[in-house]
Structures are given as C-alpha cells and as structure tokens.
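Incident review: delayed structure delivery

Summary: a single-chain prediction request sat in the queue longer than the usual turnaround. Root cause was a stuck worker, restarted by the on-call engineer. No data loss occurred. The affected request and its eventual output are reproduced below so the record is complete for anyone auditing the incident later.

Affected input:
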Amino acid sequence: MAEDPAAEIQLLRRQKVKLVEILSADADFVLQHADSRCLLSVHGYQQVKSCRVPSDKVTDLLDHIIHRGPEAAQGLLELLNDQALQETFPLLCFLKDLQVNTLATGKKETSRKRETAPDLEEIIPAKQICTKGSRLVKEKQLMTVARTIGRSWREIGRLALDIPNVKLEQIEEDHSIHVERVFAMLRYWSTCQREKATAARLHSLLSQEDWALPPESIDFLLETD
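Output delivered after worker restart:
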C-alpha cells in the first residue's frame, strides 16, 4: 500500500492510455470483474455498461474509478494484478514491476519519483517483457489482415483461431462495422495467445484448410522489420 494516498490515482492516470489500449480487447470482461469487487457505483456501472465502443467503455471505467478516490483506485490495481486478468491480458505484466517501483517512491521526495518510477515506455516496452524473444504480431498488422477477411470471419474465428462462439457473438454485438469486428476478433486471439501470438503463427493459421486466405494478402506477416 502506498504512503501517499494519491499514488494509486496518479499511477492509473499516467498509464491510462496503455490500459485503455490493452483492456479494450475485452472491455466487458474487465467491467464485470470490477463490478464484482464493487469498484463502481450502481449508476457508474450502468453508465459504463451502456458504452458500445470497447475503448470508450474502458476509458469511462477508469475515469469512474479514479473519481471515486484512492480506495477504488487501489482496488482496480489489485484487480489488474489478479491472475485471471493477467492471463486474459498478458500485456498487463508491466504493472507488477511498475506498481512496486511507483508506490515505493511514496516515501521519497516528489522530485525523485520519475527517476525511480519511470513511465512504461521508459522501463521497457511491454511487448519486450512478455514475448521472451518472439516477435508478436502488431496491431497495425492485425488491422491489415482484418481488411482482407470477408464474410467467413466467424468460420475463421472458430476453426482457425479457436475462438468460442459466445465470444464471436459478443464481438458481433459490440461492433457494427465489419472490419472492426474482424479486428476485435484478431486482437482477442492475440491477447489470449500471449507470447505465441507471433505474426508467423498467425500467417500459418490463416494459410490452412478451406479458410486459407490468399497468400498475397497475408504474406506481409512473414516480412521482418
């Protein structure tokens, strides 16, 4: 626990953009877990739940919890470090070290905080922490692939990417634009696969069986930076 009660809030604010990016892969999952821990008011829960865009839903969730004060902020940090959340959103692994470093500086002078608790980008990119040398597929690549997948996206999700039907139905309900549905599906796969979500593996999965995509549309996944 931090000596400075505002430390938890400041940590969430500094990492808000990263957290929105990571948690938007399954915003409803985060919301339900947050509600189960009573981190939002009844009104706040209903307001966040009504958001249709995942990134907006996560943004509102963070804003509500930050506005509720240090206790709610601490509760969210504990939730984000919970095993269920860490397994669903592997890129959250950056929080463990970041939180320890940030909260430890509560006993030190404010002028020295940034030396001992740098922002995420200054520590080490989250992908470098989690990939163990593997090259994870990038979101830009996922969007490019999403634009090449047509009406067979559900079949590809079920058979190639092993995504449950219930998740595909949720994605379809949450997104009205086709390319956004496909991108959300690919991003969900990437999040679930963690260090296995490499561009080469995605290429392999999308090159098999009856759902194989044209080589010219996905071969860019095999290119090296």
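Verification: The chain has a mean pLDDT of 79.
Action items: add queue-age alerting; document worker restart procedure.
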